[in-house]
Amino acid sequence: MQIILITGGTGMIGSKLSIQFIQKGYHVIILTRDIKGKPSQPGLSYARWDTKKNYIDEEAISKADFIIHLAGAGVMDKRWTKNYKTEIVNSRVQSCELLVEKLKHVPNKVKAIISASAIGWYGADKNINNAFTESDKPANDFLANTCVQWEQAIEKAEALGIRVVKIRTGIVLANDGGALLSFKKPLRFGIAGIPGDGKQICSWIHEDDLCRMYLFALENKEMNGNYNGVAPKPVPLKQVIIMLARKMKKKFYIAMHAPAFVLKLILGQRSTEILKSTNVSCNKIKNAGFTFIYPSLEAALSDLTK
After folding, report:
1. pLDDT digit string (tens) for 13-28?
2. How far is the C-alpha of 104 from the C-alpha of 267, rounded, in Å?
3. Contact 183, 193 (CB under 8 A)
4. pLDDT digits (tens, 9 = 90+) for 151-172
5. Is residue 140 packed enough to be buried (19+ CB in 10 Å), middle (13-18) or exposed (0-12)?
6. How far is Cα 190 from Cα 168, in angstroms, rounded to an integer?
């Protein structure tokens, strides 16, 4: 039985990914800061790590055949104060550095690391009709600079002979958290809240397809480097929210636009991520042989609202 070590394994994607790996016959070890109250079960165990104390259970490293690296402070969880922006960067970069450092010094058999990254690498659309591809250079803003440091930190594992794949993830549609949960909240009161003019392109992906993409990258030895974790059909954000409203409320909703200046007052710098348009291509992962279960927004929202 091959062993997969997962950071961020208790999060929205990590928890679902763990289940998929176990169902496929892998044993999963989740790295967590607190293993109390987390007993081992068939196919699943826990090991401690603490990036602030530069600590990882070395036995977990020595056992692992693969590493899935998802850990990182939530980009939209808090206002972007100076301290929280530092936490966003450090939680990603320092965790990568810790993994690479331990892989250098702890005897191991790790074949590949599949690491999260984000389409924040690309910044806002320069031309809405030209989708960003993996060869495009990074933008020059906070999230892009974070992604650059994040990817450079994990790429150092390549010097150890380890295959590294980075999934630049788009807006994940899921019922347990993320953007969709935010869109659903005002719909409880019959309001379809549309940020700004709603014309900004949303490069999204269904949570199940994202999990399958990690599994696909892990099992395909030919895959190296960057791949965009987005569905084939990006759409304007307004279309996402209106389609969700129709599925949840039929005709019983009112569409309301939240002006950009209001979002800036409420969210601060985070509002730029909601208001910007980012059209991203998934052709590279498709050409590698990956197929989407939910290639269209209609298919994705039908599943998530059934």
Report:
1. 999 999 999 999 999 9
2. 41
3. yes
4. 999 999 999 999 999 999 999 9
5. exposed
6. 34
207 within 8 A of 174, measured Cβ to Cβ: yes
Amino acid at 244: L
| Rounded (10°) CA dihedral 40, 44, 46, 49 | 180
Assess contact for 229 and 13: CB atoms under 8 A.
Answer: no
Q: How far apart are CA 236 and CA 257, in angstroms?
A: 14
Angle at 294 between CA 223 and CA 31, to 5 degrees: 55
- Nearest to residue 232, comparing CAs of 268, 192, 203, 212? 203
Q: Which residues have a Cβ under 8 Å from the Cβ of 17 and sit 6 or more positions away?
A: 6, 9, 68, 70, 211, 214, 215
pLDDT in tens, 33-92: 888 877 778 999 999 999 989 999 999 999 999 999 999 999 999 999 999 999 999 999
Q: Terminal CA-to-CA distance of the chain, rounded, Å?
A: 35
Q: What would the two tokens of residue 237 be?
A: 């954000």
**What average pLDDT does the structure give for the chain?**
95
Among 118, 145, 142, 146, CA closest to 132: 118
The number of residues in the chain equals 306
Residue with tokens 């450090």: 90
**Among candidates 13, 8, 52, 53, which has minimal Cα distance to 29?**
8
What span, in angstroms and rounded, lies between the C-alpha atoms of 121 and 147? 6
* pLDDT of amino acid 38: 79
